[in-house]
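Dear support,

We are seeing what looks like truncated structure output for some complexes. This example has two components. We would appreciate it if you could run it in full and send us the complete token output so we can diff it against ours.
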Amino acid sequence: MRRIIKSFPGVVANDNLDFQLLPGEVHALLGENGAGKTTLMNILYGLYRPDSGQIIVKGREAKINSPRDAMQLGIGMVHQHLKLVSTHSVAENIILGLNEPRFFLKMDEVHDRIHELGERYGLPVNPQQKIWQLSMGERQRVEILKILFRESDILVLDEPTALLAPPEIGELFAALRRMASEGRGVVFISHKLNEVLEVSDRITVLRRGRAVDTRRPSETNTAELANLMVGRPVLFKLEKKPFSPGAGFLELQNVEVMGDKGLPALKGISLEIRAGEILGLAGVAGNGQRELAEVITGLRRLTKGKIYVNGLDFTSSSPLDFLSAGISYVPEDRQGVGSVASMTVAENLVLREYRNGPFARNIWLDFKAIDEHASQLVSEFSIMTPDTRNPVQNLSGGNLQKLILARELSRKPKLIVAEHPTRGLDVGATEYVHQRLIQAREQGSAVLLISEDLDEILTLGDNVAVIYEGKLVGLLSAQQASIEVVGMMMAGSSGG
Amino acid sequence: MSEVVAAVLARAMETGTILLLAALGEIYAERSGVLNLGVEGMMLLGALGAFGAAHLLGNAWAGLAIAVLIGAVVSLLHSFMSVTLRLNQVATGLSIYLLGVGLSGFLGKPLVGVTVPGLPVVAFPSVQDALSKVPVIGLVLGRLLGGLNPMVYLSIALAVIMWFILFRTRWGLNIRSVGENPSMADSLGVSVFRIRYICVMIGGSLAALSGAYLILGLLGSWTEAPAAAPVTAGRGWIAIALVILAAWSPLRAILGAYLLGGVEALQYTLQGFQLGIPSQFFTMLPYISAIVVLTSFSVETVRKRIGVPAALGVSYSREE
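Here is the complete output from our reference environment:
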């Protein structure tokens, strides 16, 4: 790909980018969010059209106007958000869009071929199962098999490890190496430095739409890559005072709840969080973390068990009771649960406390106090916004997260439930969020940190709990916990 | 007694066929992700066109053909608004409905009182003869195999074919995928726009055909009706409910259509018994039963999301 330029309203996503993929290599595209990795690959796959630039595939200039063109050139892509029909079977998903068979579906032949491909690459999956029955790792296998089924020789994987537990990541990497050894070219998009160093033959670093440099893993290290990615040196160590927990603040006893689909989501969770403690909750997405966070914020009814806050029975209390007891919530879904997109920065910042003085007098809101409060938080948390009357839908993801943190932390909470607080944030913003959470701990708040990022959990957490299929399968101190042990537990083996 | 049963069943199938034809079309439109609330309007326009054409050309089959054509053209308008312009599908559907009511009421005025050739009935005398030797059941079955409108048999065949295409062929897989996850279908080179246009067109054509069958096969005359209760009498809306009851499956739609058609057939029989209950009560029955059946039968369907296309009512565009 030569001199690719693509701009969207307000941003140049790809600014004169060059990128070269050789057959038989795993080539990593490394960069922060918004660096242009996905845009570049969407251009290659025909989803976007470049403003200018050239794409050369196998020595010939190619015009790629749609995914269909890309597939005909042997290019396949696994998107970050998996594109599967969850009510259809694996085989139906894989053959969608193929020209063969022409009309009647011969599913037996398709099933055999999927079995055979699965065995060859170590990606086993049952072709007759429906997608919704599969784990995230298996779903991703289906996506990869979809490309292999089409005999593509250029594979693009956009952040494929984001949804996987560590053992599954290992299997994925083995499959990628296998594909490269057969002469296929693999593009691996990631912002995780360790993974990139582990699996790639070459690494191209993008920053703000430009290709900064291309390195071999043997010639570089994490610190240098982070530097190239962010454009300044990054601290990897966080200053943290020794762990000295106070009194227990929240206690769950044998809690059970139903999930959205009416199936049990939490199966007997017992847990205590103390003041001044960061409890890291590790687990692969969808194992009950969201439901647990909703229990602790009063959003989900228990079918069994008890909740105590400060020693008081809160089992059937309303979300407002939990809020008034000093529990703050940084939700996973920032746009949907965490903020109101069309309301202003000031209004969003006061959503927790607008009932109380100084913001409210009887039924009236004091907008002057609300605005002052907002201006103060905007500068304290360095939220990038032209003014406090700006609707939050205009904020970037990182800024929106800062706004939510500002709202949740400024009320001096006794407990913060932080759900994937740094997911999708770049290195700089992540560093900031981490510092703030540690600061809250030092001021005596309890923190429940729910995350899939094990590095994050192990650096921030004082204790680490592991959740799998709605049960706690392990509780370790941060010193005992290692990525390997916690990773095994996340995948369901009770290694501890 | 079996005479009465046979008559009610025959009538159930004949009225049920109106619902079945419209629901089959709507199943395809919704399976591709487009909600068409204009079914009632398309039925009215189909009925109007079919009646006018049958009158002018003197041939009921020509009337049906014209109706299909009209349905296709009107649904082009609907897909242009909902698929290409990506307008709210509830609003576009309602606008088609209002268009159908207004236009058919206005253009239908000169047709009041004119006569048209009806559709011939179809009978299978040899099968009937054989069946008549079996007591009771033979009589009932014999009635259903003889002397019914041909559209009854055609619609059953159509439902079977449409089920087969939807679940056993590549076309069907494309349609279902577009309705479930359009961005995925697009990324695999399936044209979301083409499939949605085709399915909406199938939906409109069948809705119009259903209206044509109603007027030519069952009613036989065009009456001047108030806009609130046009000749289709809300059956287009019941057909939309039937789609949910059928869990978006053409085969289940057959059963549902005859069930709801049966209630309508039963009301005429009950009215004939002179029970001293106001006739308006019986006229209400089909609508009440639609509500009851829908709430009781489809609780499970909806809760477990059986068949509900995930992208139903959601417009699709690529760079978003």
